[in-house]
């Protein structure tokens, strides 16, 4: 996308002269005689025999055909002229025109917009107005433009029928009210698109951008008391559109950070360069230094309070994890589709692998695993989900089923009947009170936040669960890849396809694909033949993800300080690390928290993210009992397991194993055929040898 250049807006740059400027310059310069002019003209013709260039008039525009423009709703050219964004293909991914079939029916039939035409005149006068060339209220809207104050075209709406926007409550919304004939709106169009693109690139919280043409939706614009074009209103996630939203461009045009602050969005931030503040006197410098220290102190205190003083239980963490899982799936599964409207194969493969991982690496007592995840597994595999509505219906049904069962626990619980218990000597109270919202432990009282926190919880749960021998055996028996490397690859691919924040996704993938925190050497692709529970190799994956998470926390703390134009303090970096020394004194081996004890950290993570005394179902116990003895007695030299999984498999990007399993089976069949052929040759050679000995012995007897 690009904003109109100076030339497009009719402003020539200082270094360029428009056609004919030389003529103007000569007319105001020193006068010359006619003879001299004729002589110079003759020289010019002699030096340049080519015809002079011709310029098309600037006011002539090439006629645009309806077939040449982006037109998803098959509107006529007259109908397209009532919109600014509907026919802009470059704007479509970021800004959505508020549009419905009922609206187009009114435009095509000349029907007025829900009694917006009602005035104090007679019915006859009203009918005449509706039949006028200016199409009634649209003409009056233009005629009531009062003045141009430099930032908006001011208008006056006559109050008519009340009509509110119909927007979803699962996201924040930014809405631009405009008129297609308004010069300010025309110039601001691509700036609004760029702001939307930047917010969507960095947004972690769900947010949508809309545009409302007041030439089409007169009653809506009147209801929200739009007093100038363009007017931008915003609604926080969950807010009712029955009230007027936050006006975001009353005094100045909006920017991405402004949108995030006004709507309380959880947004990724990027590193910025510090600049020298214009400070001359010592008093101002002292005040600046005091402000910086206070900012650092507040940031340190706030981060520590999130870790140490916000109470929550295992049920809260698993509830947040379940919400983040469902949000990622429903918002991203159908972002890209095949030509026949089905799920993108790569996106589907990444989700199937992740659901398989959830099947074997999460607690057997997790309610979401035994219901929603199982349903998603077979429906995704069978292509039974066709759109986002199908996914949302599946999720809503699971929440409704949980609530109708009479369960006291919040949806996504893992420990039944536990409202609170002591963790590390501190009584923890359950925070989750709403089945469809993240807890305060993740949102920190900011409702739009919580997604990334819940997703980190889910990833930590998976790395802890995959380190447990019984869960590894269960996954191995089900035919899944269960090595630490394959678990990390599965998480990586899920982030690649299901993390909506471009900045966050890019940061994680860049870290992983460049062997961040040495995972290429730390995480093995092999499966331990005799795993000793509690050994260092058993929890290397959990420690690796923990290091990644802490490095992200430190980077975010640094970026927050940079936005305040200051360097991050040592205390802030210590506060960003989890767990704090107060939470786990034995985890850290030095005062600067640069060295840690692996076993203590793993024990802390295990207690924090895994339920106490996890119960197992009969199927799980049967799998473990039937597989354990066979696993421990296996020969270390065997290259293939009973389900075809390579014990020394090389690293690979995609963890789907359908084609790999077939290949291994083919190799195994070829190997067996080769062995059988070799054995037959050996038998034939032995038979030939025995027969030759018998013949020789018989010949000696005859002599």
TrEMBL record:
Keywords: Disulfide bond, FAD, Flavoprotein, Glycoprotein, Membrane, Oxidoreductase, Signal, Transmembrane, Transmembrane helix. InterPro entries: ERV/ALR_sulphydryl_oxid_sf (IPR036774), ERV/ALR_sulphydryl_oxidase (IPR017905), Sulfhydryl_oxidase (IPR039798), Thioredoxin-like_sf (IPR036249), Thioredoxin_CS (IPR017937), Thioredoxin_domain (IPR013766). It is an enzyme of class 1 (oxidoreductase). Its EC number is 1.8.3.2. It comes from the Eukaryota. Residues 141-273 form the Thioredoxin domain. Pfam families: Evr1_Alr (PF04777), Thioredoxin (PF00085). CDD domains: PDI_a_family. One of its GO terms (molecular function) is thiol oxidase activity. The chain crosses the membrane at residues 658-678. This is Sulfhydryl oxidase.
């Amino acid at each position: 996308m690009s904003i109109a250049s100076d030339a497009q807006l009719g402003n020539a740059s200082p270094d360029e002269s428009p056609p004919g400027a030389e003529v103007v310059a000569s007319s105001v310069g020193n006068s010359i005689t006619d003879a001299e002019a004729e002589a110079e003209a003759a020289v010019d013709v002699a030096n340049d025999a080519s015809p002079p260039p011709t310029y098309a008039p600037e006011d002539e525009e090439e006629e645009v055909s309806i077939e040449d423009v982006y037109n998803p709703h098959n509107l006529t050219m007259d109908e397209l002229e009532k919109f600014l964004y509907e026919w802009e293909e470059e704007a479509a991914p970021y800004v959505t025109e508020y549009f419905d079939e009922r609206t187009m029916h009114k435009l095509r039939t000349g029907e007025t917009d829900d009694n917006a035409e009602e005035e104090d005149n007679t019915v006859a006068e009203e009918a005449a107005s509706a039949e006028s060339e200016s199409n009634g209220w649209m003409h009056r809207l233009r005629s009531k433009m009062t003045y141009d104050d430099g930032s908006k075209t001011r208008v006056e709406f006559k109050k008519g029928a009340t009509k509110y926007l119909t927007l979803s409550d699962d996201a924040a919304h930014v809405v631009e009210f405009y008129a297609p004939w308004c010069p300010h709106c025309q110039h601001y169009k691509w700036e609004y698109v760029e702001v939307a693109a930047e917010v969507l690139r960095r947004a972690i919280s769900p947010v949508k951008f809309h545009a409302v043409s007041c030439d089409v939706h007169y009653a809506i614009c009147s209801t929200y008391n739009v007093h100038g074009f363009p007017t931008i209103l915003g609604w926080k996630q969950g807010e009712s559109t029955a009230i007027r939203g936050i006006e975001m461009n009353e005094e100045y045009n909006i920017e991405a950070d402004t949108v995030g602050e006004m709507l309380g969005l959880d947004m990724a931030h990027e590193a910025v360069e510090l600049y020298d503040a214009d400070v001359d006197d010592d008093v101002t410098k002292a005040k600046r230094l005091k402000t910086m220290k206070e900012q650092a102190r507040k940031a340190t205190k706030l981060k520590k309070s999130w870790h140490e003083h916000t109470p929550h239980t295992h049920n809260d963490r698993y509830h947040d994890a379940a919400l983040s899982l469902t949000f990622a799936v429903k918002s991203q599964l159908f972002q890209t589709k095949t030509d026949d409207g089905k799920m993108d194969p790569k996106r589907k493969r990444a989700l199937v692998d992740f659901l398989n991982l959830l099947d074997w690496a999460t607690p057997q007592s997790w309610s979401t695993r035994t219901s929603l995840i199982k349903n998603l597994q077979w429906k995704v595999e069978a292509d039974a989900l066709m759109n986002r509505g199908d996914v949302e219906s599946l999720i809503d049904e699971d929440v409704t089923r949980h609530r109708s069962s009479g369960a006291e626990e919040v949806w996504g619980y893992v420990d039944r009947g536990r409202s609170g218990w002591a963790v590390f000597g501190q009584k923890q109270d359950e925070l989750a009170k709403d089945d469809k919202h993240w807890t305060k432990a993740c949102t920190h009282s900011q409702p739009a936040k919580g997604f990334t926190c819940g997703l980190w919880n889910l990833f930590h749960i998976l790395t802890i669960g995959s380190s447990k021998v019984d869960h590894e055996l269960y996954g191995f028996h089900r035919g899944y890849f269960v090595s630490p490397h394959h678990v990390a690859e599965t998480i990586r691919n899920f982030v690649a396809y299901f993390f909506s924040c471009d900045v966050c996704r890019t940061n994680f993938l860049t870290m992983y694909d460049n062997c961040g925190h040495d995972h290429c050497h730390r995480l093995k692709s092999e499966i331990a033949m005799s795993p000793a529970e509690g050994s260092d190799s058993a929890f290397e994956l959990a420690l690796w993800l923990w290091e990644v998470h802490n490095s992200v926390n430190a980077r975010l703390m640094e970026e927050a300080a940079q936005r305040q134009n200051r360097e991050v303090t040592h205390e802030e970096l210590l506060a960003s690390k989890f767990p704090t020394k107060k939470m786990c004194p034995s985890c850290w081996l030095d005062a600067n928290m640069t060295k840690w004890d692996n076993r203590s950290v793993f024990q802390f993570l295990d207690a924090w993210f895994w339920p106490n005394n996890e119960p197992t179902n009969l199927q799980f116990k049967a799998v473990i009992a039937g597989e354990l003895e066979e696993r421990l007695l296996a020969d270390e030299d065997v290259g293939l397991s009973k389900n075809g999984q390579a014990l020394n498999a090389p690293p690979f990007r995609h963890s789907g194993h359908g084609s790999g399993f077939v290949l291994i089976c083919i190799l195994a069949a070829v190997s067996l055929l080769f062995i059988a052929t070799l054995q037959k040759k050996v038998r034939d050679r032995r038979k030939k040898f025995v027969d030759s000995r018998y013949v020789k012995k018989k010949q000696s007897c005859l002599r």
